[in-house]
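User: structure tokens for this one?
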Amino acid sequence: MEIDDITKDLNELQKQIAEGKRKVAQLEGRKEEQLKRLKADFDISTSTEAQKLLVKKETLRDKMKKTIIEKYESLKKQFEW
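Assistant:
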């Protein structure tokens, strides 16, 4: 292996590292933006709080779905259509 080959390999690795750092910075920016949205929309500061809210909202959705189905079935029986 020649010095030129080593230099090319090292330059390629340097480019890959720089690209990796750029992607990490981009993802961190996106994460911060999402956390700001959560704070503004739901007064949530962490992903843990977001997960808890999600579970709470899913439970509420499931209860509402059950109620809708029950009411529909009741109306269907009542009016026989």
